[in-house]
Amino acid sequence: MSKIQRPNRIWAIGGGKGGIGKSFISSTFAICLARMAKEVTLVDLDLGSANLHTYLGMKEPKLSLSDFISGRVDDLNQVSTATEFQNMRFISGFNDALNIADLGVQHKTRLIQALRTIRTPYVILDLGAGTTENTLDFFLSADEKLIAVTPEPTSIENAYRFIKSSYYRKLRTAEVQLGMQDVFENAMDARNQLGIRSPADLLRYVTERDPAAGADLSNLISELHLHIILNQVRTRADVELGHSIKSVCQKYFGIECDYLGYIDHDNAVWQALRKRRPLVLEHPYSSIVGQFLNMTKNLLNPHSVRAVV
Ligand SMILES: Nc1ncnc2c1ncn2[C@@H]1O[C@H](COP(=O)(O)OP(=O)(O)O)[C@@H](O)[C@H]1O
Ligand SMILES: [Mg+2]
Asked: Model confidence over 29-81: pLDDT tens digits?
């Protein structure tokens, strides 16, 4: 009897802004999973400024996503390389000429489908900065959608922008099925005549007029469960910010989200990066590594209480 392969679980780390720790977070999650004996592939989707190999202390691998995108390689698994970590593979995004925004619809769709063929049970996507449609589509294709944010106002602003853009992108990709193009089109205009000022208003508006369509919309939105991770935390007030972001998401967007956890600001992070050594190897018993292990366990167990902070 042939062995039935279960589909893999994809985790994506987004957040809108550059320099907030997405690459550090995605590489550390991958190493934590590998250490827990879960086979994982880390994928660098920050095309244009791919640098994830540096977090792993690796040279640029010979093959990268561009070999798959260009069609030189058919099977995405062929461009994945072994790492020094048992159970962990890596797909590099490195190619100076390739930018994520330039990826055409066909290439993007082929890549999103191919991510599901990766032969490790877990796949982690490191996304680039910004809210281009392609980045949002990779984010939305993931099973676990993580938003990285730091306590700086600019980062928080960008995180909200990223969440809002993901929300409307999700509606756009479903509008044909739901048949609500006109309402969505209006809702996206911040000064629309319908009085819809937030995604939660939109849901109310649709439900009042057409309860069945409202239920469909609500189902769609429930797929957008987000996990908030606060990075570079220095004070207790910083820690609390995660709770406010969570409640804004629920009230304003009407979407489910949890505060998965926070990561301390620690000079050891950038110092390890300078040495091109993953933090998990440099400081395996540090509190940051403990914070990551807890978050990893929570993400692995969908029934666990999600509020860990
Ligand atoms: N918790 C942290 N404490 C200290 N420095 C951090 C922390 N997280 C990230 N950094 C540093 O911030 C910089 C940007 O991180 P990076 O992961 O490359 O961000 P992004 O992928 O979002 O652009 C790096 O120099 C990294 O070492
Ligand atoms: Mg990065």
From this structure: 999 999 999 999 999 999 877 789 999 999 888 999 989 998 999 999 999 99
- What are the strands, taking DSSP E only, across the chain? 9-14, 40-44, 80-82, 88-91, 122-126, 144-149, 226-233, 257-264
pLDDT in tens, 127-142: 999 899 999 999 999 9
Q: How many domains does the chain have?
A: 1
Q: Is 269 in the pocket of ligand 1 (CB under 6 A)?
A: yes
Tokens matching residue 249:
């998401």
Instruction: For 266-292, write each residue's pLDDT tens digit.
Output: 999 999 999 999 999 999 999 999 999
Q: What is the mean pLDDT of residues 233-261?
A: 92
Tell me if 49 sits within 8 A of 268, measured CB to CB: no
* Residue 80, domain CATH: 3.40.50.300
Partnered with residue 145 across adjacent β-strands are: 12, 226
In a domain, 269, yes or no: yes
14 falls within a domain = yes
Domain that holds residue 125: 9-154+226-247+257-300
In a domain? residue 101:
yes
What is d(CA 196, CA 202) in angstroms, rounded to the nearest whole number? 6
CB-based contact 217:224 (threshold 8 Å): no
Best of 270, 274, 295 to mutate for ligand 1, by most ligand atoms within 8 A of CB?
Answer: 270
Rounded to the nearest whole angstrom, what is the distance from the C-alpha of residue 21 to the centroid of ligand 1?
4
pTM of the predicted model, to two decimals? 0.92
Which residue has the least CA distance to atom 3 on ligand 1?
A: 265
Closest atom of ligand 1 relative to the 46 alpha carbon: 21
